[in-house]
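Researcher: Can you fold this with adenosine-5'-triphosphate in place?
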Amino acid sequence: MTLQQHLASPSPETRGGRLTIDNVSKRYGAFAAVDGISLEVPAGSLLTLLGPSGCGKSTLLRMIAGFVGADTGTIALGGKHILDVPPNKRDVAMVFQSYALFPHMTILENTMFGLKMRRVPKRQARVEAMQALDLVKLTDLTERYPSQLSGGQQQRAALARALVTHPKVLLLDEPFGALDKDLRDQMQLELRKLQQSVGVTTVCVTHDQREAMIISDYIAVMRHGKVVQFGTPLDIYDAPRSRFVADFVGSSNSVSGRIGKIDSQVAECILDNGDRLQVPASKHLALGQTIELAIRANAIRLAVDGQRTALPQTSETHATLAGIVAFSINLGDMVRYEVRVGEGRYFVVEIERQPGQLMIPNGTPVDLSIAAQSCMVLDA
Ligand code: ATP
């Protein structure tokens, strides 16, 4: 099948494979780099492995590619087990952070390479490579060598080289790590559009939570070789299950308290200094129970002199806490305040700043308004 026929195929199962990872582990001596991971990636979707340095993201990616073997578990692509299949026979293509283009080959030759290895006749390989380079908008630069391309162009060339064999799974290891911020933002959008138009199942490794939010259908947050939460970007952002996920994905405040009252809609959480917050009621909450909460910095409203800064909220049920601005920094379109509430408790609050609007000076008394829906109850 040519790349064009592949792109014309309407079925996600034929364009990208369903990837099933079942109880996969990899140990180095006594250390578990990947520790019993199970994940299901639907055909045609993009999964991001997100986590701090050393959590096992690249090891898992390399296991899917076939560069690292598994001690336990299975990996299947479109229902077929692949752990015993050599890397070049897996229907999987990988783009490395350094792109790994061959420096002595032109961009066209680099792109044709995978087809040459598959013994595709030269004329046909050339046509298919040009189609792949057209996908990534590089048809004007086909005779250049990698050193004659910008970082973004090299990345596009690496993508063309990976996609030309129309793999069932595309693996990306920190694909934007070598790019500056503006180019990274641009390439993230380009990758997402390209991945959706090609429909290739994709697994991407990053430690950048913002990037994961932008490009992913699903995110697996990893820590110490395990997946600690799997879900859509909105699931992960709106309902983190643990303090680790809440802190890793977005800026949030941590508080704990005891349930003092429950009605059908909301429960009251009493903090250790006696302040009270409203939280959404649920069947998991009981009177007297100690709970951990995460509250996004950008979900808290801040009022000074009765002038409330409007932020969208889905519920009017809220708690108001009195505090004093202790510290502030300008983030451009946002201002981040640290507000002292009572003795020794600080809330980080991020407020949109209108052009020309001044920052609230340190020492200013303010009211914080925290909606029940903004209080995310974490698993114990
Ligand atoms: P980073 O974001 O820094 O690349 P990562 O999440 O991708 O980190 P891995 O490269 O998968 O992490 O490594 C996971 C752990 O396994 C690390 O502690 C690493 O030192 C260890 N590790 C990886 N490869 C080997 C190896 N060949 N021998 C011994 N330990 C290894």
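Model: Folded with adenosine-5'-triphosphate in place. The radius of gyration is 25 Å.
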